[in-house]
Q: What sequence folds into this?
């Protein structure tokens, strides 16, 4: 197989993943088994990213027979020993290739490397931003928060509006406002804490981080925005499911409704345009629980996710 | 920090120690804590003879607002720094949710609100 074949196959994977992602965004089954759906989202994201980078690099090296990654290593070695001119020389192949083709291939090479760099950069930037925001929150909480017997293990901040959230990390923390304590009954508070503890225990922030980064990298992309919203909702549903193991659904639902309807001001533009809001989706799901997907379906999803990631990786390191 | 917020003027380490009688902290401990607060930017300090006088950089309310605005961020643009329990909803959706709640509370037993 030549680089062009690789590029064609990788392009199929990339485009297929993009279509699959928009189909998954519309599907109803993910809310029956959020964990499996999250796995599939992650696989789709990884596969489409790798495949898009690989397509560009494969197009840059149509005659290469060694696989994209090794070709790039080879070019990097050329660059180290002979500088950029050696690389361009290798592309021009002693004047046998028209200049315009060389230019297109070099553009593809630059594009592929730039895409790789961009994806790595947004991931680092999103992690750094999250870590900084959390450090500031922790410093402020040390000064302002206190404990309360009504919410064991959580910090309370004197603020009238209802707010409950968790700060993930090695020193994780659940925070609620005094407004929350006034708004919710004891059972509802316990349900909220169980929900937040599930977030912290399973590090849902790490699940969401790549999708936040992706949305930041391509703010205009509907697929990226939808993927982020879908995964954020699935993560909440997963935490709801965990809370249900220790608390009755009634407490969680009434906590959700009181919380959602007690918020300040109107919802931001765009959140309602999606038809059904996050809270409504969760409440509906808790009130009318659907059976989880059967085991064979979950197994099939896991297998599909594994294949999705394996396909571009094998093509890249062939 | 609470001592600094409650005081009307800036305080020296000794004055802060004096107001922390129930905690019975060593003078050096208080000094270290105040020094750390100043380094983190939560307290400002100025020379007064041989001692430092400390005062809060901002009011308690300012910090609470900062903390909670991050948490209540209404833009939906989460930095992934923290995960909120639920976003707030409004309008028709809120109405529908309230109706749903009434149905549950009607059918369920009495809520154990305190």
A:
């Amino acid at each position: 197989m030549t680089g062009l074949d690789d590029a064609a196959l990788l392009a199929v994977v990339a485009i297929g993943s993009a279509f699959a992602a928009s189909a998954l965004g519309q599907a109803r089954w993910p809310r029956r088994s959020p964990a499996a759906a999250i796995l599939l989202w992650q696989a789709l994201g990884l596969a489409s990213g790798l495949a898009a980078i690989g397509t560009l690099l494969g197009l840059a090296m149509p005659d290469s027979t060694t696989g994209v990654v090794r070709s790039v290593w080879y070019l990097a070695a050329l660059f180290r020993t002979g500088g950029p001119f050696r690389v361009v020389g290798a592309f021009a192949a002693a004047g046998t290739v028209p200049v315009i083709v060389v230019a297109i291939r070099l553009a593809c090479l630059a594009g592929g490397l730039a895409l790789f760099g961009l994806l790595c950069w947004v991931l680092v930037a999103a992690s750094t931003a999250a870590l900084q925001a959390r450090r500031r929150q922790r410093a402020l909480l040390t000064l302002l928060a206190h404990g309360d017997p009504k919410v064991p293990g959580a910090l309370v901040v004197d603020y009238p509006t209802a707010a409950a959230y968790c700060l993930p990390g090695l020193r994780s923390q659940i925070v609620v406002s005094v407004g929350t304590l006034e708004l919710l009954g004891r059972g509802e508070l316990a349900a909220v804490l169980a929900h937040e503890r599930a977030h912290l225990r399973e590090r849902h922030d790490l699940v969401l981080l790549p999708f936040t980064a992706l949305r930041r990298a391509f703010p205009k992309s509907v697929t990226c925005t939808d993927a982020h919203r879908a995964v954020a909702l699935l993560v909440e549903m997963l935490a709801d499911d965990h809370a249900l193991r220790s608390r009755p659904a009634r407490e969680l639902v009434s906590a959700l409704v009181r919380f959602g309807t007690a918020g300040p001001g109107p919802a931001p533009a765009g959140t309602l345009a999606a038809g059904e809001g996050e809270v409504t989706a969760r409440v509906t799901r808790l009130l009318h629980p659907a059976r989880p997907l059967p085991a064979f379906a979950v197994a099939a999803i896991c297998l599909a996710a594994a294949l999705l990631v394996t396909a571009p990786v094998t093509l890249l390191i062939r | 920090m609470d001592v600094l917020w409650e005081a009307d003027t800036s305080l020296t380490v000794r004055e802060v120690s004096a107001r922390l009688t129930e905690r019975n902290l060593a003078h050096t401990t208080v000094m270290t804590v105040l020094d750390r607060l100043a380094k983190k930017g939560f307290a400002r300090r100025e020379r007064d003879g041989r001692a430092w006088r400390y005062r809060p950089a901002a009011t308690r309310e300012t910090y609470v607002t900062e903390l909670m605005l991050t948490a209540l961020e209404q833009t939906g643009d989460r930095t992934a720094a923290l995960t909120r329990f639920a976003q707030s909803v409004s309008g028709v959706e809120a109405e529908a949710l309230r109706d749903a709640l009434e149905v549950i509370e009607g059918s369920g037993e009495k809520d154990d609100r305190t």
The CA atoms of residues 13 and 31 of chain B lie 6 Å apart. Confidence is low (pLDDT under 50) at residues 108-114 of chain B.
